[in-house]
Amino acid sequence: MYIMKKLALAAIILLLVGITFISVRSLFTHPKTYVVTEIIKGADFDYEMIKNIDSIPPPYPPDSSYQIGDIKTKEGNFVVYKLISKYRGRSKFSSRPVPLHDLLVLKVDDDEKIIDAFHYTLEWTDSPSLDLYKLNNSNAYLKNGMDIAGLDLINVNDGKKLEENAILDLKSKN
Questions:
Q1: Are residues 2 and 47 in the same domain?
Q2: What angle do CA 145, 106, 132 make, to 5 degrees?
Q3: pTM attached to this predicted model
Q4: Number of folded domains in the chain?
Q5: pLDDT at 41
Q6: Which of 5, 90, 111, 145 has its CA 20 to 30 A from that of 103?
Q7: Is cis: bond before 99, omega within 30 of 0?
Q8: Range of the domain at 103
Q9: What number of other Cβ atoms are within 10 A of residue 68's Cβ?
């Protein structure tokens, strides 16, 4: 009887350890979520600003608390979605995870085909283009819950792919 109780207790402990491990692991594998902050109809990207992003005097816009706090738009024939993902991540300025914000801007046509997109971390402090990623998949369509891996975002400088576990939440608005 004593051995049975010990075995039952050991099984319960193992079960609790397993559940705890799975719960903690899910904290690190949960996808980031991009939430809509602005939808601009009749717009387009200001490609001149994007091309010269490293020479823009910070902060941009002037009232921003970031070096580059936005990707400028201009009048055009598309719908531009601006989305933000708030998360805790690594920074060269801290040994602990800190609050970070990624900006994702999408240019979409009337059929909701994503024509172009850019991704940028707002807290970035080096040359902005080093953290600027551009759409590389011309066959992506905008839909709620889509994984941004489908955009195949690549760095504008070195062509490296953005490796990120993240989805779009088009129903919530920040």
A1: no
A2: 110
A3: 0.81
A4: 2
A5: 98
A6: 111
A7: no
A8: 31-173
A9: 24
